[in-house]
Amino acid sequence: MYVTIPERRRVRPRPNVVIHRDQRWADRLAPVVPPRRTPADAVLDIVGLSRSVDQAAAVIAEACQSGRVRPVDIATALADRPRLRHRRLLRPILTDVAAGSHSLLELRYLRDVERRHGLPTGVRQRAVEGEFTDVFYAGFELVVELDGRFHLVPNRRWRDLDRDNRATLRAEATLRYGWIDITGRPCEAALQVLRVLRRTQPDLKAKPCGPSCPVR
Asked: Quick check: bond before 34 cis, omega within 30?
């Protein structure tokens, strides 16, 4: 649990409670009783405690995906925090989240697979048949599904299979990747995506991200 208090207030340490002190505590409260932070300021408090940019990105993506706060609200609150940790890198993350990346894995796919290899920009969160596809490459009929969780529950596994089957019935190919695929083997994922895209456009350009990258 994260709790923000006025800078000079003293409280006893409690197990599993992270205390954050703020000199401008009173200026960043929502107009509710009992007093509490605005959603955007609450997110930025946790971002400021995040050890890495990935952790900060995950906090922002999950908060916005929940619907409790919008990227534009976080961006507005960010303008008032010139010394916030990771501040310089947060605006591009907010832009990507606003465009439809709803998790850290989706942000990493966008950065490490799509952009670093010069692939076309996919459509995020396309609505189809009452659900949303993570990434859809319009004109190429390719769906990329991203899931960072390990599904040991049969119902979830069967739901994923059903989504893939229905995509096939729409004449769409599906590539599905997990956390290890995108963080550990992004070049191989990019090559697979490129091969499917080139079925429609054989001369589609891409670029290797380094000397050993298999993308050509």
From this structure: yes
**Contacts for 188 with CB less than 8 Å, ≥ 6 apart:** 181, 214
> HSE (CB half, 13 Å, CA atoms) of 19?
12
Predicted TM-score (pTM) above 0.70:
yes
**Number of neighbouring beta carbons within 10 Å of residue 42:** 20
Instruction: Supply 131's token pair.
Output: 């659900």
- The candidate with the shortest Cα–Cα distance to 106, out of 139, 57, 153, 67, is 57
Domains of the chain: 2-98 (no CATH), 104-200 (3.40.960.10)
Is residue 50 within 8 Å of 86, Cβ to Cβ? Answer: yes
User: Percentage of the chain surpassing pLDDT 70?
Assistant: 92
Dump pLDDT digits (tens) for 148-206: 654 444 555 667 778 888 898 999 999 999 999 999 999 999 999 999 999 999 999 99
